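Note on ligand handling. Small-molecule inputs were canonicalized before submission; formal charges were left as drawn, and no protonation-state enumeration was performed. Where a ligand contained multiple stereocentres, the stereochemistry in the source SMILES was retained. For manganese (II) ion, this procedure yielded the string shown in the input block below.
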Amino acid sequence: MNLEDIATVKSILSKPQKIVIIPHKNPDGDAMGSCLGLCAFLRSKNQKASVITPNDYPKFLKWMPYSQEVLNFEKENSQAKKLLQDATVIFTLDFNNFSRTGQLENILMEKQADFIMIDHHQQPSDYAKVTYSDVSMSSTCEMVYNFIEALGELDSIDSGIATNLYTGIMTDTGSFKYRSTSSRTHRVVADLIDRGANNMEIHRQVFDTNSPSRLHLLGVALSNMVIMSKYKTAFITLTQTELDQHNFKKGDTEGFVNYGLTLEGIVFAVIFIENKEEGIIKISFRSVGSFSVNEFAREHFNGGGHDNAAGGRSMDSITDTVERFKTILETYKTQLNS
Ligand SMILES: [Mn+2]
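Structure output:
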């Protein structure tokens, strides 16, 4: 954060504010951890603060400290609307464009308040009074740590805040193994452990909560995997029928896409998941090395994200989507093999 932005934030927080904190739609560990950690921090500074999620978030995050107080805009709609109406400051975390907030988009576009963005995705839009955007960061949670540090308030980080921030850094770095994991990231998590994050317990809560049906669904996903060696690519499909047969719940397919990258010689992994209710195919892209899935998703599948992890969508059937994907892949043959 630059000095000017730090001064602006300090001046905003020097007065009592009504603060709303918002993650992107379908919030993940980083989105929830950053919002919950920041919310607890702001409350410790005697600010009124609440987290409003555009929709529900996965069960494997529902143990996170303070998560029971989160308002789901779809479920607690009138309460959430009232808070938004009264809000004087709105933090937007782990996204940088209102289009990522689903039904909240129009409300945020109309809303007059001081917006503060903390985010590590590419191409931030310019709605915020303070934009703390850094694509080199491992996670928004690491940035919230930096934010608190910039305010000179690290000693306000208690075990609840530390646990939330640790969770987001852990999930967004694939347990500290993605390229964005720096020595600084490790110093931050070390400090969070010192401040009360129980790393072993957090890992267990997030990763060791499989249900038999989820493991069986993973089995289906892995046997559906198609390996296209000439493009160094592996992709998985899951149809709505397959999801229904395995009692699918939000979050069950989290991490499935990464299995493709564990294959020797594969640099590009994709999963296509049919969502009949929304009438779309949801797509996740992952890569290792220099192949930018952010550009690929932006260019062809209405999405984006990071260089090595991005999302997208298609309105075509799952079969047509996969056929289109294969056609596009041909044009990237050289790049994927370089
Ligand atoms: Mn993130």
